Amino acid sequence: MNNISLAGFYPMFSVLIEYWYISLPAAIALLFGSRWFPKIVISAVGFFAGFFLIFPLLLQIKVIGDYITANPSSEIFFSLLTGVVVAAIVYSIFRFVFFLGGLLFGAFIGMWLWKILYPTLDSFLTTQFPNYQLPDWVYYVFIGVLGLIIGILALASQEKTLIFISIISGSMIAMLLALYGLMQVTVDTFGKIQTSATGQISSFNLSTAGILVFFIGIIVLMFIGFKVSYATRRQTA
Length: 237
Description:
Elements lengths: L3 E2 L4 H9 L1 H13 L5 H21 L3 H9 L4 H54 L8 H20 L1 H28 L5 E5 L5 E6 L1 H29 L1
Helix pairs in contact: 1-2, 1-3, 2-7, 3-5, 3-7, 5-6, 7-8
């Protein structure tokens, strides 16, 4: 059986599965509700990032982890608090986040394109102007301008970006929970999952069949999510 290890995601998986009664409705809302409440979606993404991703990372800090271990009843309170704080931060700066994300993505594409175009450009300039050397600042202007353009485009298309983030997040959470359920009722067909004495996931290995089911399921759910989004857009247009 060919396996792929997902050890780096164990803390997030543990929280998602332990609080499935929160993560499952959230996945459905993210998958099918993005068109109706885009600003709520960005807050929800921030909340669940804080709840399911940031808080498990905070537990790795010894002081916090020791306190939660000594006071297990406080875990849900602090996980919810982390989610609310991150949601508030993301909501308050989400326009800036879109612009910054587009800016960085554009700069990355600019660096990639420059590495491809520069040899040809340098050869052309050397042939036409033997004593000319391209200034270093041209490189930074190139990636800066491209990053700025894409950043502005991302800001202008933030609703579509929100819908995409919402649908893919909902699809991934839903398929993780579905796969976990399948692994509980089958023997090694989709992989193996083991938990430690504290209930945290210590081993989560997907078989080839599990990987196929996971990614095919995500593609199918995303297709359905986009179809629903497109249908609701036509109804509200």
